[in-house]
Amino acid sequence: MIPGVSGGRRRFSDLSEQEILALAISNEEDDARIYRQYADRLKKDYPNSAKVFEEMAREEDEHRKRLIEAHKRRFGDVIPLIRREHVSGFYARRPVWLVENLSLERIREEASAMERQAEIFYRKAADRTTDADTRKLLGDLAMAEAGHSHVAGELAEEHLDDEARAAEDRQAHRQFVLTWVQPGLAGLMDGSVSTLAPIFATAFATENTHTTFLVGLAASIGAGISMGFTEAASDDGELSGRGSPLKRGLAAGVMTAAGGLGHALPYLIPHFWTATAIAMAVVFVELWAIAWIQNRYMETPFLRATVQVVLGGALVFAAGALIGGG
Which of 82, 132, 212, 294 is most buried by its number of CB atoms within 10 A? Predict the structure, then answer.
């Protein structure tokens, strides 16, 4: 709520020209901070992209100075406290602490969206202004924001040649693999393979689909929780560079549970042999999916991945079937 204003947020159409200028000033201040936050987040692993965002922050600082000069000329030195969250229906910015969860490409997309939103704001603000100089300033800033994608491209060309961009893209891909793919793959392998024996042992021992489903559900959820906590607690990512332990734990836990549930869910079907046939087909698909992921992201030769995963899964399945049918 704006100090001194009751009733919650103001509508943009109800703002005075002074308040519109004040809102523009606070917007530029916030956007400059966000760009600097991006630069700080990227400077270690992506120094060239960090330079791009530092330059963009300086552009926002120049816009803010021009707006403050316009406010002083028309309304004096005291700028009303009004921010985007005080205006109903106004665009919002992602909280800066969530920057840690954004990839390099996602940060670039966020910056592009920021520029488009700022352009729309300045065009609407210019339409609301009667002072010729202020209207011209807001129109110029709208054009500047519209051209920011071009400016960003020029900055990228200055700081990001093909070699630098390729190096940063490789680093981003490597980070994605370390943070999401590797723990997720480990979880999928653990969930798919380790639950084969108890699920199919129960199935062949009881020939009861409900009991088999409950055992599969318990094994899958339990394994997912265990795997998730183990992955998160095993490495904080600071020295290894593997990224957030929360992300890795989430990837490992979810994929472990999914791997087990894949061949447990068919036992919701009451007919035992139908459920078992579908479960076996699901196992086949799971094992080949694991082999494909290993080949695609971990660069494991497909034949070796196939032998490791499919042969290993087949042995575990056989063990469960023999124990359950014995």
Answer: 212
